[in-house]
Amino acid sequence: MLRRKRVSPSVPVSSMADIAFLLLVFFMVTSVLDSDPDLPIDLPDVPGGEQLNKKIANLYLTADTERTVYFNSIKMPMNEAVNNIRAKLSTNPDLKILLHADQNLTYEEIDKTFETLKEVGALKISLVTKTTQGGGLKGN
């Protein structure tokens, strides 16, 4: 009897990269992006700023020109908003707080807000700005 030479089985992997790319495109197209609260805030411009990854676990603290405070788009007094933040941070200390402050607020007011948030245990606080294309300073 003649023996046939065994051919080892092989898996074609050349199309795996195509499949991975198609899956990546599919998930990018079908994912839902988190947007900022629709409040009338005039954010300051920052050239070449860094975009933050926005997750559901973010807390939004907003202050407009009339010093009205919103916590997650709900209007409330500042001390009540701080108490809500304290309660949320007690269950999940890794929450990020995104501070939307109108550009007409003073640095003293924003600094005081940062200090208050640090006192209640907020470790990740970001000041949200509008970003413009490019980097560096704009010429006159």
What is the strand and helix layout of this fold?
Elements: H1 16-30, E1 45-47, E2 58-63, E3 69-71, E4 74-75, H2 78-91, E5 96-101, H3 107-119, E6 124-127, E7 130-132
Parallel strand pairs: 1-7, 2-5, 5-6
Antiparallel strand pairs: 2-3, 3-4
User: Which strand order spans the largest sheet, edge to edge or round the barrel?
Assistant: 4-3-2-5-6
Q: What structural class do helix, strand and pairing data support? A: alpha/beta
Approximate helicity band: 25-40%
Integer average pLDDT: 77
SSE ordering: HEEEEHEHEE
- The Cα radius of gyration reads 25 Å
**Principal-axis shape:** elongated
Helical region count?
3
Number of strands: 7
- The portion of residues forming beta strands comes to 15-25%
What does this structure look like?
- It is a single chain.
- The protein is of the alpha/beta class and 140 residues long.
- It has helices at residues 16-30, 78-91, 107-119; strands at residues 45-47, 58-63, 69-71, 74-75, 96-101, 124-127, 130-132.
- Strands 4-3-2-5-6 form a five-stranded mixed beta sheet, covered by helices on one side.
- 11% of the residues are buried.
